[in-house]
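Sequence in, structure out.
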Amino acid sequence: MTTWRVPVHPVLSIAAALLIACTGDAGPAGAQGPTGPQGARGEVGPPGAVGSKGELGAKGPKGDPGDAVGALSGTLTQNVDGMAVGSAEVSLEPPLAAPVLSGIDGTYAFAELPVGVYELTAHQGLYPDVRATVSILAGVPTTQDLVFQGFVGKSYPCMSCHQQKQPQLIADYLASTMASSVSCQDCHGGDMGNYAGHSAMPTAATCGKCHPDQYRGHQANRHAIGMQRVYEAGRYDDLPPCSGADPLSGGVATCTQCHDTEARCDGCHARHTFHVREAREPLACGTCHMGPDHPQYEAYESSKHGVRWALQGDVGGGPTCATCHLGRKVQGPNGLFTDHDLSFGMAFGPVGGRDTHVSFTRAGELPYVLANGALNENPAYDPGAPYDMTGADGVQDSVFPGDLDGVVKQVVDPPEVLAARRAEMVSACSPCHDKPFAEARLGVADGLHVNAASVTHEAEDIIRALSHDGLVTPSPESRPANPDAIGAILLGGSMLYRDLSRIERLFFKMYKYDQVKTWHGAYHMNPDYAHWYGWAETNLTFADIADEATKVRKDHALEYAITHGQQAVWAVPWQGVIYEVGSMKKLYDLFPAGKDVTVDAFGSGAPITYVGLTFH
């Protein structure tokens, strides 16, 4: 057997001896050993309470404020020739400095102004005030030049006088673009010593000297015969004077202000400002084209076109009167211009009870010639020539010197011209509507126009028959003559308001108000005007006319029977009409027994033969 010997380390031997010795009584505790290394830091505890605020320290020394003011200066000139404007008062708002006057060289200056923002205003005599906003910085000189809207120096004597009498007139003129190039004398004449001479009202021809292209369009459209048509209607003659014995005074408040557009441009372009923007506003047309007999403005205003314009203005694309009636742009000798013929795109109506458009001539020439289906300016047309008249008899028609002998010669446009006019109107719709839609809607309006005219013409036939039988009181023969009268009785737009029978008064309402609202509403895309104000009222008024005609004839029959001791009289049927599909059919036309009379009823097409009834 092998015995292994393991060497024992002396220290281990001692430890073993000690271990054996521990089994005995415990000895005294040994001395404390040295401190060990620091342990890891514990978590941060909650913050302590906020201490009380210390006392405010002493105020420091005052700093350097620097410059608290600035300077303002500039030069005042006027825009015509850059001439300096002296003796102008320049003021500030807020008024932190007294106003200053510009020197003879037009300069002004404020030496010290508190820093801030100011509204600067320069005022000098006849010039419109000039304003600007300026910022004044500390220690910085600021320059602000101001330019007055100037005027032709030749105008100064007129303006210095009228400034005292009509200051708004001068302000309007100075605010216009014309003030810098057109003098007062250019429009009103140069006779400064004769009040009547230098204050003459400018005419359209006066404007035409500088605006020949626009003048041509004005002379070609129906505005240019407005006053003559008033004379021809006889209404001026029927109006009693309103001021002394002047016969013209009766129409000043009722007719002239609209119809004298024949010789004026300021019916649309307000005088002395002449703003194109102002003339484009529908309200500019509304002064004349409104009311029961031509409610274009009201029909437009409450249509979708008018509502869109009212809500969105220029930026919304809503059409105005000018959009449709002054939309034609023409390249002329003086550049591109707006054709001022407001009638150019009208293919139906709008006057004289006719179902088509009519034109008028000057020196035998129409304003346009047809070429390849389009209307072009007629080079032989002279816009300055008088319009042609017909029916002259050498006798003055009225007491008014402006009333020409006869009536304006009017030419019915042939179908091909109407087609060209309609194409122009459709093109005005094209920015918003496609061609088929525009043509369809205008065609519907044409149809309603025809239907309304049919009812009106039938009512006219009934009244002409009564007049032929002598059953209209007062009789047409007992009334003042009227240049527009056709046949035995005048029925239409030129009717007067006095010496009328009740049935004529009803017809006036139907013709002048009801049927006009029908087609004006249709062409201006206003369904309520077309229907309730127009078509419905046209037919309701016709019922009144038919009823009145029946009563007149029954009364006449009764009076005849009493006078002649008869118990049996002729039958009096209802004076009405019946409908057929798509048209109007006359039920009858009543004339005296034994008389067949052909009457060319104005506006009703071919002559109509009336066959009388036979007495019982």
